[in-house]
Write the structure tokens for this entry.
Amino acid sequence: MNQKRYKVNKNDTNKKLDKKIFKRISDKFHEYWKCLFRLIGIYIVAYLFWFFIIVKHGKRLTNKYKLNGNVLWFTIIMILIQGLLFSLDGFVTALLKSPFNQMCFAVNKTEGISDKKKDFIITKATESNEHCKETLKKFGIITIATELFKSFIKSQKEEKGTDWEELMVLSYLVPICFAAFDIWLIYQELQKMKRSISY
């Protein structure tokens, strides 16, 4: 009996969902995933610039002019750069949470979507947001900040690393792939909803 009543309610909610409401949810979703992947792209470009230009050529200059943690003004500059890296957490969180919160609010407010679908969309959106936000935060603060200290602050003694240790940064791509998969699942769910209101 309860199952039949649930099915009727589910059909009713599908009928109530109109194109204007769906368009608002879809627009917020597109705004969210574009912002998310834009940030990922910026971080990748920033790291490539950091690793291939700043570190490679910067080491040569610091060795030439004997700049390291023993030079006060140089250390202060590095402190400011590292402080900006730490501040990135706030910027990343704000940029991701603004469209994310608006999208979740639009989904939650809509009466034409079943609770099951609402839970699915919001859960996957939260997962993608956390995967991306936490990964970019760790990438910026842990990886680049550590490289900053290792490359410019400590005494410039040659320490030979392993052949493939630099490839460890690729581990950050794993949570990013999970975030991308969550976005794809939300997209698929929205496409189903779009087809249902087209009839």
In short: The mean pLDDT is 76. The radius of gyration is 23 Å.
